[in-house]
Amino acid sequence: MSLSDPIADMLTRIRNAVRINRENVSIKKSNICEGIATVLKQEGYIEDFDRIDDGKQGILRVTLKYDQGGRPIINEITRISKPGKRIYSSVEQLPHVLGGMGIAIVSTSKGVMSDRNCRQNNIGGEILCTVS
Fold first, then answer.
1. pTM for this one?
2. Mean pLDDT of the 32-50 span
3. What local confidence, expressed as pLDDT, does residue 81 receive?
4. Three-class secondary structure of residue 16 per DSSP
């Protein structure tokens, strides 16, 4: 089965795993999904992720992060730009998620970055999703 939207699949798998307090979630590997996982790790929303070779496309195993009370760090993860409607933004118009408490993940010409890194590097791009 081919996925027409691997980003939406990744976000849905993470969202569902967080709801049932799973420790790990497996996602089909793609460069964009790996970039999103890297940003989530850098920003502290997930513990880590591993690349697993399955002889085909590969799998990303994402280890989710919870606080001491067992509550998930990721409260909400929402897809913004979709295959039918791409949402692009200049650096000045990047959204401030929860007044800076959340992040927007942006695909730029320099790779996948958080909105904070985009502002530091003065670069805009396609807003993939928001995380809070």
1. 0.96
2. 98
3. 97
4. helix
